[in-house]
Amino acid sequence: NAGVTQTPKFRILKIGQSMTLQCTQDMNHNYMYWYRQDPGMGLKLIYYSVGAGITDKGEVPNGYNVSRSTTEDFPLRLELAAPSQTSVYFCASSGQGEVSGYTFGSGTRLTVV
Amino acid sequence: AQRVTQPEKLLSVFKGAPVELKCNYSYSGSPELFWYVQYSRQRLQLLLRHISRESIKGFTADLNKGETSFHLKKPFAQEEDSAMYFCALTECGYNKLIFGAGTRLAVHP
Prior knowledge:
- The structure holds two protein chains of two kinds.
- Chain A is globular.
- Chain A is 0% helix and 50% strand.
- The model of chain A has no long low-confidence stretch (mean pLDDT 91).
- In chain A, strand 4 (31-37) and strand 5 (43-51) form a beta hairpin.
- By secondary structure, chain A is mostly beta strands.
- In chain A, 35% of the residues are buried.
- By secondary structure, chain B is an all-beta fold.
- Chain B contains no helices and eleven strands.
- The A-B interface holds A 31, 33, 35, 40-45, 48, 50, 58, 90, 92, 94, 96-102, 104-107 and B 4, 6, 9, 32, 34, 36, 42-46, 49, 51, 86, 90, 92-93, 95-102.
């Protein structure tokens, strides 16, 4: 049982490049989330999804896009990378109506130069 | 607006000393409160939640609605407790978590 798997673990992008951060979970969780964690800061919600085909913006969605075609996968897309997007990105999932907490992925450290 | 405040960026104590990591929140409804921990080079993991009233690894946290606080406490800190601790809340019935900025706990021998 892998839980929440994120790839890649590290990536360096040049300004203006695009990439997709992958996230998959095998717990049949309906809810999935993308957060970014900047140094010395808490986690800020980028996008979330309450089920396949449904996504919604979080606190800091600008510069990102998501899709949720299956229950398992919730990729995060950066179209035109900017230095301000240098951060650690965490994907998480939780069960519907369940407040027992999130299961987090191990994170993706992204640097935009 | 919902907000979680952790006033201390760093808390440094010696092994065996008591620890209290502060968390205050602003929310008009009935929130669920959580503490998450992130050990060095590991993913965030749930430490405890207020509705379960449990003690995990010697840590406890009591929800004080009057003071809107959910401070994390441990009577005797251990070196392995050194980590980043995040307080978080969610509205009852919803799953979207709002995190505080985190407090780094450093326990020295």
